[in-house]
Amino acid sequence: MRIDRIRLVVQALFFIFLIYGGILGFSIGNAVPTMACIYAEDRGGSCFLYPFQRFMSLPWSTLLAATIVPFLIYLGTFFLWGVVFGKAFCGWICPLGFLQDLLTKARHLLGIDGARFRWASRERFQWVKYALLALLILIPMGIGSSLAGLPKLSGDWAVPFCQICPGKPLLPLFSGDISHLIIDFSSPVKLAMSGLLMGLTGLFLVGGFVKRRWFCLYCPMAALLSLFDRIGLIGLKKKGDTCTRCGNCYRACPMEIREIADIRDRKHMVTQDCMLCMRCIEVCPENKALSATFLGFPVFTASADGFLKRHGGQPPLTQEDLPHDTDSNGS
Amino acid sequence: MIQIQTDRDQKLTRRLKLHLAMSVREIFDAIALEQNRPVAMRPFDALFMNFAEAPDDILPAKPVKKVGLYCMTVPEEIVYAAGALPVRLCAGSADAAEAGEALFPDVSCPMVKSAAGFTRTGALPFYRQCDLVVIPATCDWKVKLGDILSRHVPVLMLNVPKHKTTETARLFWYDEIRRLCRALEKLTQTRITRARLRASISLIHAAQAEFRRFQDLRADDLCLISGRDAAEVANAWFYMDAASWTGHVRRLNEELHKRKQSGLGVIPKSAPRVLLTGSPVIFPNWKIPSLIENSGGALVCDELCSSGRLLWDMACVDEPLFDDMLDALADRSLMPCTCPVFTDANDRRVKLLRMIRDYRVEGVVHHVLKGCHPYDMELRPLEAELAAAGVSQLKIETDYSPEDTEPLRTRIEAFIETLKGRRLKSGGSF
Fold first, then answer.
1. Cα–Cα distance measured from residue A128 to residue A117, given in angstroms and rounded to the nearest whole number
2. Average pLDDT per block of 10 residues along chain A, 331 residues long
3. Which pairing describes strands B155-159 and B132-137: parallel, antiparallel, or unpaired?
4. What is the predicted pLDDT for the residue at A316?
5. Is the domain of A280 the same as that of A147?
6. Contact A309, B202 (CB under 8 A)
């Protein structure tokens, strides 16, 4: 069984839970570090960022006094989630990640070749997620208190990241709610934000179809979860002395992380964009070169036998057995 | 192409055929005296006997286009996907090297001399029968080989980026591989489709699976197969159809596995375990493997483009789409290649240290063909690094001619004795 198929199933189950879990009364809280949208009516858990921005928009006097205990409990929950699952949220749980993976799957079925970033372009956009993270902290703060003597921002700026996150219009659609697919003309700020959101949602769908996981490169949640790359219980380890640098892992990586193939002298391979999808381990043909660990113990390890088994299929016995049909996707 | 053969040429061809047949028979006469050799080696022996007995029957009799290849950097999957048969033309005959000598400077690679000798004389018919010869411009010799061969056969040169870790190198190579695709499609009038690519990747995966199993068996404490026989198995890949080679190696692996269970090795455990690395070892030039084993060593593994490296690296099918599979093939033939023509020598050092550990190697023999400058260039720093890791090494500089066999034998024997001494000193037993 290929891990990317297992992953798709796990993602689907989490998707159903996070979008519809509320119907049966399930909920795993509102500090989940993944893009489970708060605007989805029947959600079984919701994104950490919405309450976080709400907390940030409280005046300092309130945040540090009356709401300090709920705020700390809330941060602690997030911390626990992060330590235990870390980036696995991105690869295995995130509903927006799942939607992008579905788009990729659809592209495969249609037989359309995908696109990749040029190395320089990919590096050029690395800062975006940190900038978004900084903004989603600073803008709410500017609502509650005045920053550096500037006038307070209006309430139209509330939860700014949610206003431009493609999850807001897309995920409620699954419970039949189309009310977020709008451009809001009620104020200039809202008009700008909702206009931007509609544009980004279009980009999300088109880009996600063309390039695997293309929106994840800009996700501020990935930047937050990067805090747990080293201390998380799930790890991705490389044994450089068995690596041939064949580049299989880099080519198969949905996030196009080059370090996984190029770097030999580092053991910890969970980098800022890694989503722990384990695809690199699956396509690595060298015994023990890559492995996923839980609490330091290997749980999934690269091997030549596994590689061949997963590539499966009975090989043609003679050259004449090669198929002669033509498909629409030749050179 | 019109060929005018003069009397002198014809004489040269006749002499080469005769001498080649003599050296092939000499090899197999010696092999016939060996006991305990795996029976499953027979199909491989039969193939190489044809070099003497029936040169027309070396390649499988199939009505498909034949595409000659040099080096490992041409992915055979693409040739199969185009419906043609890949034939690796890298040659190892001292006599053919003599026939090609006049075309090259004094100190030049015997491999290209030999290949040019065969092509020029046509002593082995398939050198002329190839419908296309693909030469990647790896070392300086290959760069110029195309010009010489193109007088006799149609040649396609491939540009190989030498500093392969950059993005430009990769993209450039992807384009070269696509150019190769188009040339092959034109040749065979067959479109390389997604389905055909996927199937030919499976075809090669099957061969690679058997090859890896074979290498695992060689890593056993018991020497299940001689290094020369292992070279023979790998060399046979040059000329056999992938599927039949896979079948023969599968049978050999099964036999070796049985021998492993019954504890039947071909070389005593007392023989020091040797790794051979450097310039290629190609039939009939099995001089070095034979010398190592006749001097009491056990050649347990090699890091040669003619055998150990040949089928190691596997392409992964990530997206089952045309572009991705082609890129995968381009990557697998370029990125992990440890040929010293590439600037980065670190990959080869890491690979050697890993093999030394995995195969419990006691001594390393560096094989440098006179004129094979890339290996020579890389040797000095490599030797120092391996020495620092405590590895015993012997550097052999030679060519295809059997003239230096006796002095080499003396040196190799002395090396093997040293290895035995080291084993005793470190408390090992025989």
1. 15
2. 90 96 90 94 93 92 90 95 96 96 95 92 93 95 83 89 96 94 93 96 96 94 94 94 94 94 90 94 95 94 93 55 46 35
3. parallel
4. 46
5. no
6. no
A309 touches chain B (CB under 8 A): no
Q: A2, A282 in Cβ contact below 8 A?
A: yes
Of B83, B208, B320, the CB nearest to A108: B320
Selecting from A120, A246, A318 the residue whose C-beta is nearest the C-beta of B336 gives A246
Which of the residues A104, A322, A324, A326 would you substitute to probe the B interface, choosing the one with the greatest number of B C-beta atoms within 10 Å?
A: A322
The confidence score (pLDDT) of residue A325 equals 45
Confidence (pLDDT) at B4 = 58
With an 8 Å Cβ cutoff, are B199 and A321 in contact? Answer: yes
Higher pLDDT, B207 or A154: B207
Task: Give per-residue pLDDT as tens, B407-430.
Answer: 999 999 999 999 999 998 887 655
- Mutation test of the interface with chain A: which of B177, B193, B212, choosing the one with the most A Cβ atoms within 10 A? B193
Smallest Cα distance from A318 to chain B, Å: 5
Architecture of the CATH domain B209-312+340-425: 3-Layer(aba) Sandwich (3.40)
- Assess if residue A316 is contained within a domain: no
A326 is a domain residue:
no
| A294 at interface of B, judged by CB pairs closer than 8 A | no
Kindly tell me if the per-residue pLDDT of B298 is higher than 80. yes
Cα–Cα distance for residue pair A76/B398, rounded to 1 Å: 70
**A42 occurs within a structural domain:** yes
Laid out side by side, the sheet with A234-238 consists of A234-238, A290-294, A297-301
Write out chain B residues lying below 8 Å of A307, CB-based. 314, 316
- Sheet strands (E) in B177-308: 273-278, 298-303
Contact B243 A318 (CB under 8 A): yes
A121 touches chain B (CB under 8 A): no
Domain with A275 in it: 233-311
CATH 3.40.50.11890 fits B8-207, yes or no: yes
Residues of A in contact with B75 (CB under 8 A): none
A265 touches chain B (CB under 8 A): no
Provide the token pair at A98: 């799942």
Note the pLDDT of residue A25: 87
Strands A290-294 and A234-238: antiparallel
pLDDT at B1: 45
- Give chain B's mean pLDDT: 94
Please report the pLDDT score of residue A329 as a whole number: 41
Could you give the number of structural domains in chain A?
2
Q: How far apart are CA A223 and CA A126, in angstroms?
A: 10
Cβ neighbours of B313 in A, within 8 Å: 244, 246, 285
Q: What sign results for the dihedral spanned by CA atoms A233, A239, A243, A245?
A: positive
Count CA atoms within 13 Å of residue A74 on its CB side. 19
| Chain A residue with Cα closest to B201 | A315
Say whether pLDDT at B255 is over 90.
Answer: yes
pLDDT at B317 > cutoff 50: yes
Q: What is chain B's alpha carbon radius of gyration, rounded to the nearest angstrom?
A: 21
Instruction: Quickly count: other Cβ atoms within 10 Å of residue B271's Cβ.
Output: 22
The pLDDT value recorded for residue B246 is 96
Residue B31 has pLDDT above 80, yes or no: yes
Domain stop point among A206, A224, A242: A224
Query: Residue B179 CB: number of other CB atoms within 10 A?
Result: 13
CA B240 to CA B246: how far, in whole Å?
A: 9
The domain boundary residue, chosen from A224, A253, A283: A224
The answer to whether A218 and A125 are in contact (CB under 8 A) is: yes
Cβ–Cβ below 8 Å for B194 and A264: no
- Chain A environment of B335 (Cβ under 8 Å): 245-247, 261
Q: Give dist(CA A115, CA A313) in Å, integer.
A: 27
